[in-house]
Structure formats: C-alpha cells, structure tokens
Amino acid sequence: MSHTLILCIDAPLQSWGQRARGVLRDTSMEPTKSGIVGVLAAACGVERDDEKQIAELATLRLGVRVDREGLLERDYHTTQNVPTTQGTGHRTVVSERYYLADALFLVALEGSLELVTRLGEAVTKPHWPLYFGRRAFVPAQPLFDCIQDASLEDVLRSHRWLEHPERVAELDDAQRKLALRTVVDCLPSAPGAEARNDVPVSFADGARRYATRTVLVDDVPLTPAMIPTEETRCS
Question: Where are the domains of the chain?
Fold first, then answer.
C-alpha cells in the first residue's frame, strides 16, 4: 500500500535554485527535489555531508502540485572587497538573484509508512529552522498537512486545494475552473519524461553533488470537491 506525506509549501518569498554559483542565481518555478530533501534534512537534523541519510530521503517519490503560481522576481546583491582571481587586489561583484513571490505548493512524498511518519513528525518539530532557499524565506504556515494511504497521483488529483479560504471566496466561477500544474517523478522510459539534475548526493560546503531524475509535467483539473469551504486538515 502506498503512503504519501503531504506538505504545504507557503511563504511570501521562495527560491528553488538550480544554479547556485556565480553571479546569476536562478529559481525553478516549483520546488526542486534538492530543495525539498534539504528541508527534510534540516527538519531531521541530518548533517550536510551525511550521504547515507540524504540518499534515504532522496528515495522518496516526489510530486508537486502548483496550487498558486508564483511571480518571478529579481533583485541585486552587491558584494565589496571580493579578492580577484589573480589574488592581486579586490573588486565589487554584482549578482542577480531570482525568487518567487506569493507562490503556494502542495508537495507529496510517497514512501514507506515508517519513513513518511517520521518525516511528518520532524517537520512538525524541526531540529533546525526551516526555510525555502534563503534563510529569510521562512514558512508562512506549518508544513505538515497530513499522511494519506494513497498513491502520489491520487493525492495530486483529489487533495483539497491549499488556497487560502479568504482568497477562494473572492474568485468568480470562471476563476474556479483552473488546471493545476503538476511535476511528478517518473521512469526515464515514460513518454514525455524530462531530465532534472536536482537529486542531492551531498550538501557539503564546496563539494555539493547532484544526480539526475526524470519527471512528467502535466496538470490536474480543480474540481468543486477540491475547493475548500473552511480551513480543515485531514487526520
């Protein structure tokens, strides 16, 4: 039987970087596998170079449902007195950093009951502070939603829309007929599979390493049964 941990990823600002070096720091439009595994590792107190425990977390099958698309924003960081590559002086470096504003995601993680239960407890009482890409980008509400005895696909198709009830009340009938974008781990042989180089092997400073996974990008219809009438959570 499949067991799926459901998380609510909600924050005013988020950054899910795929290229974290140099003067250009990008963000994916939805949480990456390395980003979610990093959040789980922080919750569990896993050290950055503990490859065994990172590998265990990375075995979870990941699905993301975009319950509200974020706005892509950019800011600039200026760093002074950066040594030159020749070591003969210093310079000022301007970097461009991208982030998502006002995004909301349902993240589903499929695995053994023992593992998803342990992770649900960890994100409820995290070992280290949790944030979404940058230390200032902290969650706007608790991450833990629930654990379901259901497949990842069933969760993405049927779980309650995470949009805030006050926002839902403001939508007209046309706006309620949405298609919610999904990004789901899949086999490399699946038609339409896309490669993503974001499976963490190690988060060690100066020695970060990643492997490749394949995903399917699709969407699910927002049905009337998924639209919340009050703020409830499953048990």
Answer: 3-226
Closest CA to 120 of 207, 50, 60, 71: 60
Give strand pairing partners of 105. 9, 66
Alpha helices in 129-179 (DSSP H): 152-158, 165-170
Question: Residues near 85 by Cβ (< 8 Å), separated by ≥ 6?
Answer: none
Inter-residue contact 182 to 199 (CB < 8 Å): no
Residue type, 30: E
pLDDT digits (tens, 9 = 90+) for 106-135: 999 999 999 999 999 999 999 999 999 999
What token pair was written down for 124? 């409820």
DSSP 3-state assignment of 141?
coil
State pLDDT tens for residues 74-103. Answer: 887 666 666 766 667 676 667 788 999 999
Task: Encode 12-38 in three state secondary structure.
Answer: EEECCCCCCCCCEECCCCCCCHHHHHH
Q: Single out the residue of 189, 39, 200, 198 nearest to residue 105, CA to CA.
A: 39
- Residue 137: Cβ within 10 Å count: 17
Q: CA 132, CA 119: separation in Å to the nearest integer?
A: 17
pTM of the model: 0.89
In sequence order, which residues have a C-beta less than 8 Å from that of residue 193 and are 6 or more positions away? 186, 187, 214, 215, 216
Say if residues 156 and 182 touch (Cβ distance below 8 Å): yes
CATH architecture of structural domain 3-226: 2-Layer Sandwich (3.30)
